[in-house]
Amino acid sequence: METLSISQLKDKTIDELLVYSMDGSLYGVTVVMGERYYKLKKGFKMYRSYSVSSIQKDLSACNIKKLTLVQDSPYDEMIGQTVRQAPNTLSLSKLNPKTQYSAASVAAVPPRLPCRGCTTSCTNYVQCDGKPWR
Question: What are residue 100's phi and psi, to 5 degrees?
Answer without folding.
Answer: -110, 170
